């Protein structure tokens, strides 16, 4: 043990001895007569109070004694606008000590544990009180509803409901009146069906194209001008009209390696390609496109009187099904998706040229033509 600990023990022992000496030599406490009792513990205090409570006598009132206070209930908000008559709970009769004998007075000592019957009576009283509170609450909710919610049909206000008196009647209608619509007056508004060329129309235009000497595909002018003038249309579509969504791997504009003049649509090889509108074929390249397009087809279109040329390069080798000077419509299969020429994978490079022979964005143009080219 350290010196510091020894000093602490010595000081504590000295303090204890000093306190004991003061207690022995100090004055003794005196208790005056009639003063409250002194208790050495809380337990002694509780036991004394319990004995005093048990000693208190309980007097039972006689039947003819003063009446006990009554309980009055006045609830003007329970549905009758304050006209409810207060009720008084009758005083319970006290049991008598025999035939005509006065009530017996006795000291009743409450037991520490209530009897089983008293416990059941206490629980029943609590349950009854809770049920009464629920009943009063429901009455308050019901009586707080608007008056219109509980009115009978005969008491409805004019603003709430209007009942038309009298009996309604219907005028007779002639049973033999019949309206017939001639078959010729029925018009089917199908833009695609209207844009399709009939066999007779295509044969007539093809005869015109065969009689023309084809010009150059280059420069922004139609290679078959007379045939082109007969192909004016307003309907356009994507090269894959049967697909609801089209993926785009590279859009129109500048990218790594230079300017990209079209939109790349990657699809599996063999996917059929159709023209964006009716037109006449102005050029066909069987794998020798000078721009690196491999197998490609160019088509001239007359869109609302404006010259538009569409390009379809990188097609599958041997899949081209059209030739120069052929009249095509939106149902004609031009070729199939491939990866010929300068291509890193199967896709269609869709490119559009105007009369100045300048490329423009195919996606934006189709959107302006009310054709949404959705992408995934």
Question: Layout of helices and strands, plus pairs?
Answer:
Elements (H helix, E strand, L loop, with lengths): L2 H23 L16 H14 L16 E2 L13 E2 L27 H28 L47 H5 L3 H13 L13 H5 L2 E2 L19 E3 L2 E3 L2 E3 L6 E2 L5 E11 L4 E10 L2 E10 L11 E2 L6 E2 L11 E6 L5 E2 L1 H7 L8
Parallel strand pairs: 3-9
Antiparallel strand pairs: 1-2, 4-5, 6-13, 7-12, 8-9, 8-11, 9-10, 10-13, 13-14
Descriptive labels:
8-stranded mixed beta sheet; 376 residues; 14 strands; disordered C terminus; elongated; alpha+beta; Glucose Permease (Domain IIA); 7 helices
- Percent of residues in β-strands: 15-25%
Q: Name the structural class.
A: alpha+beta
- Rg estimate, integer Å: 55 Å
What's the rounded overall pLDDT mean? 76
- Assign the CATH superfamily of the domain at 195-368: Glucose Permease (Domain IIA)
- The 3D shape can be described as elongated
Remind me, CATH topology of the domain at 195-368? Answer: Glucose Permease (Domain IIA)
End-to-end C-alpha gap: 85 Å
What profile does the largest beta sheet have?
A: 8 strands, mixed
So how many helices?
A: 7
Tally of strands: 14
Question: What is the annotated CATH architecture of the domain at 195-368?
Answer: Distorted Sandwich
Low-confidence stretches: 70-85, 97-108, 147-151, 160-165, 175-188, 372-376
The topology string of helices and strands comes to HHEEHHHHEEEEEEEEEEEEH
Estimate the helix proportion, in percent.
25-40%
CATH class of the domain at 195-368: Mainly Beta
